[in-house]
Automatic annotation (TrEMBL):
One of its GO terms (molecular function) is thioredoxin peroxidase activity. Residues 2-164 form the Thioredoxin domain. This is Thioredoxin domain-containing protein. It holds the Pfam family Redoxin. Thiol-specific peroxidase that catalyzes the reduction of hydrogen peroxide and organic hydroperoxides to water and alcohols, respectively. Plays a role in cell protection against oxidative stress by detoxifying peroxides. The keyword Chaperone does not apply. Keywords: Antioxidant, Oxidoreductase, Peroxidase, Redox-active center. The active site is at C51. It comes from the Eukaryota. Gene3D superfamilies: Glutaredoxin. GO terms for biological process: cell redox homeostasis; cellular response to oxidative stress; hydrogen peroxide catabolic process.
């Protein structure tokens, strides 16, 4: 699991996003994040009640507050496919181009950040851990994780903004 002070793992090839036309496109993490200050919010799944009703709405609402603190963009990371992420982004009203919904279908980046959670008992399989981190020029400035997939306590937008 990464920690504050570690380098952010940029060498990941299996990430995708939904283009403005709605097509899945590879997401170039290395190029996109180069010399940037950004936040990564990893969630277990699109349209799941804790992620959709508790966790992400606050980030959508406070995206401008992050920008005011010098954050270039916020990456929302989960293993769901780009089509699902596009629909989820629309459902959340996340129209800001500072919110980038990124699919990690092989959990490649997820595994580099924190161990995936196993929600097989709920029929969901292995999922991204719930976490948030602040990265400034490839260095992890702050890292907060909550391995209990349903709880949304430490990785909230309010708590992360307080650390900027």
């Amino acid at each position: 699991m990464v920690q504050r002070g570690d380098r952010f793992p940029i060498n990941v090839d299996s990430l995708f996003y939904s283009s403005p036309e709605g097509e899945p496109k590879p997401f170039d993490l290395k190029t996109t994040t180069k010399s940037k200050k950004f936040v990564v919010v990893s969630v277990p799944g699109a349209f799941t009640p804790p992620c959709t009703n508790q966790h992400l709405p606050e980030y959508v609402k406070k995206v401008q507050s992050f920008a005011t603190k010098g954050v270039d963009f916020i990456i929302i990371l989960t293993q769901n496919d780009p089509f699902v992420l596009k629909a989820w982004k629309e459902k959340l009203g996340a129209s800001s181009n500072k919110l980038i919904f990124v699919s990690d279908p092989q959990l490649e980046l997820t595994k580099k950040l924190a161990p995936p959670i196993d929600l097989s008992d709920l029929g969901l399989g292995k999922r991204s851990s719930r976490l948030a981190l602040i990265v400034n020029r490839s260095g992890i400035v702050e890292f907060v994780a909550n391995e209990n997939g349903g709880d949304v306590n430490v990785s909230t937008a309010t708590k992360l903004l307080a650390k900027l």
